[in-house]
Amino acid sequence: VQLVESGGGLVQPGGSLRLSCEVSGFTLDYYAIGWFRTAPGLEREFVAAISWSGGSTFYADSVLGRFTISRDNAQNTVYLQMNSLKPDDTAVYHCAASIRVDYLRDYASYDYWGQGTQVTVSS
Q1: 27: which of 54, 77, 82, 87 is 20 to 30 A away, CA to CA?
Q2: Cα separation of 92 and 39, whole Å?
Q3: In the prediction, which pLDDT does 79 show?
Q4: What one-character-per-residue DSSP string does 62-108 give?
Q5: Contact indicator for 87, 14 with CB cutoff of 8 Å
Q6: Contact, 100 vs 37, CB < 8 A?
Q7: What is the CB neighbour count within 10 angstroms for residue 61?
Q8: How far apart are CA 85 and CA 111, in angstroms?
Q9: What is the pLDDT of residues 88-114, one digit of tens each?
Q10: Confidence of residue 26 (pLDDT cuts 50, 70, 90)
Q11: How many CB atoms sit inside 10 A of residue 41's CB?
């Protein structure tokens, strides 16, 4: 079982990035996927999640209206489109997979985790 994040990097405030989470070793169709982030000195924070069907999405208040989560089960990939980025969005972003259909804002609900990708928002 493997989740691999990509798409991170350095971007100026107001810019955009699209993160990808490619999974292997299990059938993505049956799993919800969440994105979490960890900034230096801070605890892990929920960012967004999408149900196994893609029919339900969840966002942290801090990213609502700026970030969009989506999935392509045929490509075994989940995306996080991040627009209007702010310096406070700087963090390592991790994707994670959960067999649950609820409590998707809670990191304890997730079974598998990726290694993370660094996002830095700075001028």
Answers
A1: 82
A2: 6
A3: 98
A4: TTTTTEEEEEEGGGTEEEEEE-S--GGG-EEEEEEEES-SS-TTSGG
A5: no
A6: no
A7: 6
A8: 29
A9: 999 999 999 999 888 999 999 999 999
A10: confident
A11: 5
